[in-house]
């Protein structure tokens, strides 16, 4: 689908980075709300949200924690709220869905396949941890499969999509995930426009090479024609180069401390808003306009913020 404006998504905290990696990673409901609102004010039309235990920053699926920041975000901004169904390591599918089922958001993320998800190389760079769970969390990823079977995906599509009108950010970490998405479209479980997030640079998924991004887009064009829009997530230091390439190719962009802790080489981002402001500057320097939340809703055919349960 041709777009006149670029949607900026911001993934505020995620479940990948641990508290010891950056003092600026938002952990408590107050920090998540504050940084999400600031990101929206800086130009993010979509806020991709996870929750963490306030005491130690460990990823949690508890809807009660989500409800400590979701109403505040909605009250302060008109940004689209996108709740993760990825959850965190070793959560069951039912646990991963709890917050989205309770709140019926406009959007939810959905990983399109089971995969190895290796975070353990971070142990080569980080050795001192504030909380006991952090080291084990990273090390255990060496023997962890992020489970998203066809049955799991169909369940999520029916539970959130069919029952609640939630639309999805389809996270595709490799070319095979695009074919899985086509399978569900052919089954009639999803309808266009499809919002496809190309995810590059996670160990276990497709690598962060510019050629891979071009290949992902080429295959998505073949499979979905003009019925989809794409966005790009570049992990770690690949964030800004890959999202810039995405914009040049006519796509949308995702930034945020879930995807990268840095603003530039060796420079920690002090907030999500800093990354949003940086990518907005890049877009505007390319003579591209940034989409407002309502423009994003129109492009993606979302149900509207007045239909959610928070």
TrEMBL record:
Coiled-coil portions: none
Transmembrane segments: none
Keyword entries, A-Z: Metal-binding, Transferase, Zinc
Gene3D superfamilies referenced in this protein's UniProt entry, alphabetically: Aldolase class I
Cofactor needs: Zn(2+)
InterPro entries found in the cross-reference section: Aldolase_TIM, BKACE
Highest taxon, organism lineage: Bacteria
Any one GO molecular-function label of the UniProt entry: 3-keto-5-aminohexanoate cleavage activity
Protein name per Swiss-Prot or TrEMBL: Uncharacterized protein (DUF849 family)
């Amino acid at each position: 689908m041709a777009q006149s404006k670029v949607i900026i998504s911001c993934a505020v905290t995620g479940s990948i980075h641990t508290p010891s990696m950056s003092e600026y990673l938002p952990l408590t409901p107050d920090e998540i709300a504050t940084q999400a609102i600031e990101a929206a004010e800086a130009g993010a039309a979509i806020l991709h949200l996870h929750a963490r235990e306030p005491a130690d920053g460990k990823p949690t699926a508890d809807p009660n924690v989500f409800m400590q920041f979701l109403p505040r975000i909605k009250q302060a901004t008109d940004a689209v709220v996108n709740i993760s169904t990825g959850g965190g390591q070793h959560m069951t599918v039912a646990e991963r869905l709890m917050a989205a089922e309770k709140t019926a958001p406009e959007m939810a993320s959905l990983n399109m396949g089971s995969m190895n998800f290796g975070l353990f190389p971070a142990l080569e760079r980080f050795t001192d941890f504030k909380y006991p769970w952090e080291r084990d969390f990273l090390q255990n990823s060496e023997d962890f499969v992020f489970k998203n079977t066809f049955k799991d995906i169909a369940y999520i599509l029916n539970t959130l999509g069919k029952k609640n009108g939630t639309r999805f950010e389809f996270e595709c970490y490799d070319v095979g995930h695009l074919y899985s998405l086509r399978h569900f479209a052919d089954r009639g479980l999803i309808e266009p426009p499809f919002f496809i997030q190309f995810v590059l640079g996670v160990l276990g998924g497709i690598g962060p090479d510019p050629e891979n991004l071009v290949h992902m887009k080429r295959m998505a064009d073949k499979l979905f024609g003009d019925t989809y829009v794409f966005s790009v997530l570049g992990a770690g230091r690949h964030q800004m180069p890959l999202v810039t390439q995405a914009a040049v190719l006519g796509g949308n962009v995702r930034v945020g401390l879930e995807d990268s802790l840095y603003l530039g080489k060796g420079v920690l981002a002090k907030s999500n808003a800093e990354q949003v402001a940086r990518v907005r500057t890049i877009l505007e320097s390319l003579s591209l306009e940034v989409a407002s939340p309502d423009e994003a809703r129109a492009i993606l055919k979302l149900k509207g913020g007045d239909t959610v349960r928070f």
